[in-house]
Amino acid sequence: MCCKLVELYVILFSFISSFGTGDFHDRMDFPHYNISIAEVEPYIMKDGPLYKGYMVDLIAMLANLSNFTFTLHDAFNEDGRQPTGYSERLGNVIGHVVSQSFDIGLSDLMITEEASRAVYFTRPFSISGARILMLKPRPRKLISLMLLVPLDPELWTLLVCSGMLVGVLICVFNRFSRTALKNGVLEDLTIPVTCFISRMKDDKPLTTPSRLLLAFWRAFVLINACSYLANLASYIFSENSRSQAELPFKTFSDLTSQSRVSYGGWLGMQLNTHDTLQQKMLKYLNSQYSFYTDLSVAVEEIASKNGMYVAIVDGQAGEYLVNSDCRFLLLKDELYTIAYSIVCGKTERGRKACDAMSDAIIHLQTEGILVELKRKWWSQQTSCHHVSEEDFEMSHGAHMVKFEPMQIADVAVACILLFVGVCIAACIWVTQLLRRKRQMEHTDHSNEMDSV
Q: Which residues are in coiled coils (predicted)?
């Protein structure tokens, strides 16, 4: 029923306004207002030579109830372009009204103490608040290279280099030893790997230093393998415990209490310096100069930072965005209240216009027509499945399992064990070489004595 009333009001005013600048206007004793507007979805949008949107429908209803006609004028900048950011729209529209170039200003205008000194505001036609806009959390998935995650990259490098070192030492021990074994070079170099997947055969004999080194190598790998499997199980368990999509915070208090996710606000937002929380946020925003001039800039920043940045946004603009872009989520917590209104010139004519429109707004609110009007423009672009913050858990719950990749320091005992094995094997190898040298010298000396 309310939707039909909305359409009825708009159609009725379309008939009246069609005579707004003709003989009908001259004969009727209705005041005519020139209105400065700034385009912003879904409030005011260009539709060919005409305009459409929430504010266009609203001003049509108010004109019908308050008995006035109007003409809409674009609040272009001096360079001929539409104002983009909120501060720019506010400055242009209110500036035109203050200079009395236009009677009324129309856009997504918020009531502020500073602006109220220069213009009249109507009764608020809508109430919202400053809210948090963020990327919609996604369920965590096990990454494709999950088998590499349990160990730190430096530890993986150490393991690979250790295996290569053991292979090279075995090759050296086999070739430059007392028995001088003649295994293939590739066979010796791959022994650190093949010793775990196949049994050593008789045709691949090893010298004593090589067998000793291989024993220490197996102990080194066994210790690391056990640690790896334990950490892999911890990783899988921690990821499973976070399989449900989670929010890093749900309130402004939680937002300011963390440092992992950065945030920004729109240029011109009114923060109360007497409120502890808002004072803390203002200090952060000023120190980082984390202000954006237009909502599209904030949206791009949120999307590019992949969850590491959120924006404080005008609640109504955020609601319209999340209805059309399914990537984003708007949290319910409000930092402060925002009242949306229409501005009139600070003159007797402007005061009468604002008073008349305020009475009409009260009537529309009482009849529930403004609720239906907002639903018309905010819901018509809805293509997303409705999701709220209640559908997500907080990410800092006590049930979370903290996971950290293993560092080199975590396997220090195994590293020391391998180092000891290398030293012992090297000592035995050197001892065998010295013995071999002495035996050769003794043999040579015996041969010389025999020849004499």
A: none
Q: Which two tokens stand for residue 193?
A: 């790997």
DSSP state of 391: G
What domains does the chain contain, in order, with CATH numbers? 2-125+341-367 (3.40.190.10), 146-241+407-451 (no CATH), 246-333+385-394 (3.40.190.10)
DSSP state of 400: -
pLDDT tens profile 49-62: 889 999 999 999 99
- Helix, strand and coil percent figures for the chain, each rounded to 5: 55, 15, 35
Residue found by looking up tokens 């872009």 in the block: 325
Q: In sequence order, what are the residues at sequence separation of 6 or more whose Cβ sits closer than 8 angstroms to the Cβ of residue 332?
A: 131, 250, 388, 389
Tokens of 323: 């209805």
Give dist(CA 392, CA 138) in Å, integer.
Answer: 10
The pTM of the full predicted model, rounded to 2 decimals, is: 0.61
The one-character DSSP state at 131 is E
Whole-number Cα distances in Å, 93 to 74, 107, 184, 217, 328: 9, 8, 86, 78, 30
pLDDT at 12: 46
